[in-house]
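Comment thread on ticket #2218

A.B. wrote:
> Attaching the input chain for the structure job we discussed in standup.
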Amino acid sequence: MIGRILGGRYEIVERLGSGGMSVVYKANCTYLRRQVAVKILHEQYAEDDEFLQHFRREAWAAARLSHPNIVNIYDVGEEPEDNIYYIVMEYVPGEDLRQLLRREERLSTSRAVGIALEVLKALKFAHTKGVVHRDIKPDNIIVDENDRVKVMDFGIARAQDLGTVIPTNKVVGSARYMSPEQARGKYTDARSDLYSLGIVLYQMLTGQVPFDGDSSVGIALEHINQTPVEPKTIHPDIPSSLNRVIMCALEKDPERRYPTAQAMGEDLVAALKGEALWADSRSKADDRTRVLSGVPSVAGWGSERVSGSRMASRHQPKETPPASKKTWVSKRSILWLLLLALFVGIVVYAGYWVADWLSVPEVSVPDVVGERLSTAESVLAEHGLRAEVVASTHDDEVPANYVLSQNPPANRDIRRGQSVHLTISEGPEWIEGGVPEVVGM
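C.D. wrote:
> Ran it. Output below, let me know if you need it in another format.
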């Protein structure tokens, strides 16, 4: 492959590394005269038509992730006659986090948190664009020569996984870093990325991953069933607050993890400052109304107060002054009012929960203007929305089959399952018959 020119412009000059899905080369772009990285799919994936369809669509979608902490994707190409399908990416001089950890074993608290915060910036941006990485691991985190952090492999990670399982029905991801739901082959979302980052942060601080072994299946089962040893147990110098942040990210149930990259980032900063954590608030009793089967006594006080009241009742006079009829009527009225209020409260409470159960959740409409129609359909589907082309028009600047406008606009909240109306470009309008002959006129 060294010396070959792909797409008529990318000259392969050096092999950088390989993984389970692809081989990465350094190349020279002869058009723009710059170095790039070219990721070429392994041949077994290049022969899978369904996989290639996902690969093309999701690579195009990932190409719009332009962010300082994300390795940019410049181009997607293919040479089918040789079974070569590739992604052209930004070349970042430096080393990946795995190489850094292999050399230093574990990192200081400040440096580990700093790297995690940079990764969270990348994830926050990608998640707002509807892109979930699903393969966050040290190999995909690059630390450049100036100690800046960039996340790579968004395109191919998405291409593997439109629902966590690729067409061959194999669970994808790296066993040591995959979330429990990913290991089960279930639906994954942004919180799965936060679990994987929790594993990476665990490794940066302790020098080891929480679950390891020779069998990928065995490791996946540990993610599903085993509780990880807390980082602070391995190295007591890890701050307790940071230990709690990691354990929150590693919750088995996604509902108990951080809901967003923003929330996890804020807790990491709070942990360094010694401030209160969102992770700690999860364990506090909630304010929901519920029926209690009994109220436990505190240090025996409950039982003592009951027995004391019974003892006092035995010492009271057996004969008490008879209550007047007016007093009895008043008490009975109060009792009925209390029962009525209780009944109304139960009805209102039940109605609230029934309405909440029947209601359809709202989602924020992603921005798909300027995207290819197939990409827009994929992004909207990820948000539980449907794409509906309602109009098309000629445009001198926007190529055919790209989105010109959308309704509702981006960032508006609508019910899941609703349609987003799209207006599609037909490209420039050409004059029938071509340019008339005017020479000599």
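A.B. wrote:
> Thanks. Noting for the ticket: The two ends are 57 Å apart (CA to CA).
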